[in-house]
């Protein structure tokens, strides 16, 4: 499928905040990386036209394209560096009273700086467009990242609450029901891909133009299908990690409860032994007292 300007504009309009939507459009753009200049120009035009609440979506898309296209070439890194100063100036200006959006943009810039996607001087230039009077973006993001793990640890240890057992079971059931690995439709889709697609040397030997055009359509549709499959697998992996963490927390909580029960049992057994000893001692004293009374009464009678 050849690149179409109108199609890309439509996809940008339909873009939503879900990870799948962003990654799908990012994959589509990377597939058409030969048109990187047009794609970036249209991205910038639509960014400036979009409502302020959607501008962050365009930055998420830009970040995903830049990071995932690097292994295939620097086309998008170079093209985006051409428009990013104006794009960041515009986006920061639109979000001057939206601290949440500003922090999210700061986070993107921090990632680019940390992973050396752009040079330090260029990143500093982008940071210079931040609204004045706010804390430095890199400091703000770094502090948040350092504070997050501590906050998580505090909330886990202080609450002492384990995940609800019903919630754990529901999560496991939903995970297995929605697993990509169990989706028979995907297996059917994979089986419908022509074997020639996997044989690059064989494709190079094809001379029939119509056959090549048909095969090209199959390649495009297969690419879209594989991209969506990859996204579903990534999402499933994230969900499995969440459930694994939930199960780990649940098991830890159960072990703590077990230790608590064992400690309480030891305590009660000790009290029970003391109580039994007191009972025996009291019973012995009572019998001794009774015998003493009997002897006293016998002497009195005689």
**Can you tell me the overall shape?**
elongated
Sheet bearing the most strands, described?
A: none
Round the mean pLDDT to the nearest integer and report it.
Answer: 79
Proportion of residues in β-strands = under 5%
Span of the ends, CA to CA? 126 Å
Q: Give helix and strand order, one letter per element, not per position.
A: HHHHHHHHHHHH
Low-pLDDT parts are 136-160
Q: Give me the secondary-structure category.
A: mainly alpha
Structure characterization notes:
The protein has 302 residues and is an all-alpha fold. The chain has helices spanning 5-14, 19-31, 36-49, 55-69, 75-94, 99-114, 120-127, 137-159, 165-177, 184-191, 200-204, 209-301. The relative contact order is 0.07. Residues 136-160 have low confidence and may be disordered.
Key traits:
12 helices; single chain; 302 residues; 79% helix
Topology:
Layout: H1 5-14, H2 19-31, H3 36-49, H4 55-69, H5 75-94, H6 99-114, H7 120-127, H8 137-159, H9 165-177, H10 184-191, H11 200-204, H12 209-301
Helix pairs in contact: 1-3, 2-4, 2-12, 3-5, 4-5, 4-6, 6-7, 6-8, 9-12
Describe the structure in brief:
79% of the residues lie in helices and 0% in strands. The protein has 302 residues and is mostly helical. The radius of gyration is 34 Å and the shape is elongated.
């Amino acid at each position: 499928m050849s690149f179409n300007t109108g199609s890309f504009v439509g996809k940008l309009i339909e873009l939503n905040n879900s990870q799948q939507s962003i990654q799908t459009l990012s994959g589509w753009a990377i597939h058409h990386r030969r048109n990187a200049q047009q794609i970036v120009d249209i991205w910038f035009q639509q960014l400036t036209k979009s409502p302020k609440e959607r501008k962050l979506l365009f930055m998420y898309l830009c970040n995903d394209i830049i990071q995932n296209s690097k292994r295939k070439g620097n086309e998008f890194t170079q093209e985006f560096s051409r428009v990013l100063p104006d794009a960041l100036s515009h986006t920061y200006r639109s979000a001057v009273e939206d601290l949440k959006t500003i922090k999210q943009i700061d986070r993107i810039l921090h990632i680019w700086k940390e992973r050396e996607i752009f040079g330090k001087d260029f990143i500093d230039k982008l940071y210079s467009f931040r609204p004045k009077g706010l804390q430095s973006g890199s400091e703000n993001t770094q502090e948040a990242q350092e504070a997050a793990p501590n906050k998580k640890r505090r909330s886990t240890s202080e609450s002492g609450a384990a995940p609800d057992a019903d919630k754990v079971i529901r999560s496991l059931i939903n995970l297995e029901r929605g697993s990509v690995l169990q989706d028979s439709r995907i297996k059917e889709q994979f089986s419908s891909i022509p074997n020639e697609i996997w044989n690059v040397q064989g494709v190079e030997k094809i001379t029939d133009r119509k056959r090549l055009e048909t095969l090209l359509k199959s390649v495009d549709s297969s690419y879209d299908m594989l991209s969506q499959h990859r996204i579903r697998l990534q999402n499933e992996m994230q969900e499995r990690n969440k459930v694994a963490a939930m199960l780990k927390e649940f098991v830890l909580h159960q072990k703590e409860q077990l230790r608590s029960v064992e400690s309480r049992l030891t305590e009660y057994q000790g009290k029970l032994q003391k109580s039994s000893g007191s009972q025996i001692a009291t019973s012995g004293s009572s019998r001794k007292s009774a015998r003493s009374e009997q002897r006293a009464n016998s002497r009195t009678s005689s």
